[in-house]
Amino acid sequence: MKERTFVALKPDAVRRKLIGKIIERFENKGLEIIAMKMVKLDREMAEKYYEEHKGKEFYERLINFMTSGRIVVMVIEGENAISVVRKMIGKTNPAEAEPGTIRGDFALTTPDNVIHASDSKESAEREIKLFFKEDEIFSE
Ligand code: CMP
Asked: I want to staple 97 with a disulfide (CB 3.0 to 4.6 A). Which of 17, 20, 71, 91 is the partner?
């Protein structure tokens, strides 16, 4: 089934100039980037984005990190895009992420684990809506 998922390249990915290397993997896989922009999150937007983690031990560190620099957000479309992209990014803790996955190859610690991708259809819809208007998304 053709799906849309939301992906964010985190401030560490932008600072380390990994945007091209990461996007290349999705395009090589046959997935399509149908929306993309660079934004700097303010605290309010970061809190909305990560509302499900409010109260967790790492929440403050996560919000501080996510507001520390620019991020690149995108909508990716393709067959089973949600699970395929999650597989490609690897486990949340980069120390456990398999080599060959994005976190496995480019990250070592959290919260600076390079990339975020939606974990379900519901979070994909919510996250896409948070960052993109319908007319900013291009789909045939
Ligand atoms: P992400 O996939 O964006 O979803 C939530 C984020 O919280 C996660 O990636 C990490 O950046 C961060 N995170 C998750 N667990 C921890 C942790 N134990 N310590 C610090 N940051 C974490």
From this structure: 91
Give the distance (Å) from ligand 1 centre to CA of residue 92: 6
pLDDT at 135: 97
Determine the pLDDT at residue 99: 98
Catalytic residues: 116
CATH topology of domain 2-134: Alpha-Beta Plaits (3.30.70)
Rounded to two decimals, the pTM is 0.97
> Would you say residue 77 has pLDDT above 80?
yes
Domain ranges of the chain: 2-134
